[in-house]
Amino acid sequence: MADTLEIKEREDVVVRFSGDSGDGMQLAGNIFSTVSATVGNSISTFPDYPADIRAPQGSLTGVSGFQVHIGAGQVFTPGDKCDVLVAMNAAALKTQYKYAKAGAAIIIDTDSFGKSDLEKAAFKTEDYLGEMGIDPDRVIACPISTMVKDCLADSGMDVKSILKCRNMFALGLVCWLFDRDLNIAFNYLKEKFAKKAGVAEANIKVIQAGYDYGHNTHSSVANVYRIESKTKVKGRYMDITGNKATAYGLIAAAEKAGLKLYLGSYPITPATDVLHELSKHKSLGVTTVQCEDEIAGCASAVGASFAGALAVTSTSGPGICLKSEAMNLAVIMELPLVVLDVQRGGPATGLPTKSEQTDLLQCLFGRNGESPMPVMAATSPTDCFDAAYDACKIALEHMTPVVLLTDAYIANGSGAFKLPNLAEYPAINPPYVPEEMKGTWTPYMRNAEGSRYWAVPGREGFQHILGGLEKDNKTGAISTDPENHDLMTRLRQEKIDKIQVPDVEVLGDKDNADLLIVGFGGTYGHLRAAMDEMRAAGKKVALAHFKYINPLPKNTAEVMKKYKKVVVAEQNMGQFASFLRMKVDNFVPYQFNQVKGQPFVVAELVEAFEEILKK
Fold first, then answer.
1. What is the reported pLDDT for 226?
2. Domain boundary residue, one of 184, 216, 248
3. Whether 543 contacts 516, CB under 8 Å
4. Is 345 in contact with 359 (CB distance < 8 Å)?
5. Is the same domain home to 453 and 321?
6. Domain span including residue 595
């Protein structure tokens, strides 16, 4: 059969790994992403976890997915649908087939399609392919469990441990299908299981077996796909998740500012990985404290900020509710603090493993009193590094708490990240009180930008008290004077208004677009892909995507009023559109709103935007 094998060059391919929540689909997807990023492919990933803590094995609600889009050029999304679907059991095939393209190759473990498996997955007959209308010629049906048992028969491992390696067989088969270098995967496993050499050896053996199975049988259904790298910027690249990039950005900012980094946090999905990652870097001057609750996490960060550290607290939407009082304390004390909100589905516990953009108005206004606070939103997994760095710079230089919004989609997703040169990043210069002000300085004296001078405790002659009660602008003593409170309220607002942020950039047909697409944060990739698709079809479309929300870029009103039709697309019921209407006079945009806990689907965006163009 070797002479019939065809090597196809592809610009991009989407692969979706799916199986029971204990089948290791996230690990298989992460390794495939790392292998692809290391050879220079552009990648975008989407881990799709079940919300159940531990759903029954083989159940429909317990299916875990991981989708990765790899491309020769730049890719912006994990893809609407996949070219290859790995379904490790019947429930995975039943729930994930809707994400497969027509004609997609499907890899299944036939050992997990027994009668009881089919019943758990609500199949009515044993002809599961016919029942779902799947062409058997598109299916690579492998007895994966049996082959893994045979492969590791001499390993000395028990059957349960052996079956945990099934994901690596599927990964090996996919690596063969896409002509991936197994040595990168081997190195990944050796590093991950450095203290468990036997486990690493077993997984490496199984990956090789999966690769050999594909090579020896040529059962590719499709063929071998090769995706060459077209990376334009030379450098070292790694596959990085948004949460890890955020952690690295915080560390970089602390190093640039010459400060110790403190994180006060409480574990909450999907933000916990930031705490996990930062806790590994004590050697870099990072202190992490897992507090007893969200309130303590934020309050301890306020204390660390007063003591002179770069202070951060991390959470998701429910934690923002609890942190709001301590956040307000940082507002009135005018202390630098970065509040990371990795948004998830709500309200209440809601959809803890899914993604939304529903915390925007809470972060802008969800505190008592007039409490202005900068709010910004990262646009992609790799942008989380720069966004975290920028949030720290704003907080430290303007003596204010800053909210950094990410979301479950970009926090858990990943991209090919070019390792940065910190020397190229802008300096961070906190407004420390000058030594010559000793004797005349009071706690609320300000520099030209309106920022309160920072006197770190321990400096002789600069002893002071801060607190939650309003203070006199001149003396720093507690004050209930009406005129003083009005003045302090305005000074705190003016300080935020004076923060300089870059103009919002308009992409696409910026001079003559018939439709301007507007978004913020983690939807950038999907909105960009929708714009590109529409422009390729001859439509005149532009995109303005916001990273800085409070304060808005100075050219916001000019951009919003320049185009005949504007649509604001967001994963909520219209929060950013409402904020823009508040800030831009006579601005009445169209809206595209979805709250599904899933990323946008590019095809649906294009259809909706084309309907607006017809109106």
1. 56
2. 216
3. yes
4. no
5. no
6. 506-614
Cα separation, 364 vs 370, whole angstroms? 11
Per-residue pLDDT band at 207 (split at 50, 70, 90)? very high
Q: Is residue 427 predicted with pLDDT exceeding 90?
A: yes
Contact 307, 245 (CB under 8 A): no
Dihedral over Cα of 234, 239, 242, 245: its sign? negative
pLDDT in tens, 239-297: 899 999 999 999 999 999 999 999 999 999 999 999 999 999 999 999 999 999 999 99
Length of the chain: 615
* In a domain? residue 385: yes
Residue of 71, 90, 79 lying closest to 19 (CA atoms): 90
531 and 558 part of one domain: yes
The two tokens of residue 111 are 């050992």
Q: CATH number, domain at 33? A: 3.40.920.10
Q: Tokens 């109106």 — which residue?
A: 615
pLDDT, position 220: 47
Q: What is the mean pLDDT of the chain?
A: 93
Structure tokens that stand for 528 in this block: 């960009």
Q: What confidence tier does 218 reach under pLDDT thresholds 50, 70, 90?
A: low
C-alpha dist (Å) from residue 596 to 353, 356, 358, 547: 12, 8, 11, 22
Cα(225)–Cα(36) distance, integer angstroms: 13
pLDDT digits (tens, 9 = 90+) for 66-115: 999 999 888 999 999 999 999 999 999 999 999 999 889 899 999 999 99
- Domain membership of residue 326 (yes or no) is yes
Strands of 12-20's sheet in order across: 139-142, 100-109, 82-87, 12-20, 63-71, 42-48, 414-418, 237-241
Q: Produce one character per residue of 185-211: b if its CB has 16 or more CB atoms within 10 Å, e if not.
A: bbebbeeebeeeeebbbbbbbbbbbbb
Of the pLDDT bands very low, low, confident and very high (cuts 50, 70, 90), residue 4 is very low
* pTM above threshold 0.85: yes
Contact 26, 32 (CB under 8 A): no
Tell which residue, 600, 413, 596, has the closest CA to residue 523.
600
Task: Please check whether residue 570 lies inside any domain of the structure.
Answer: yes
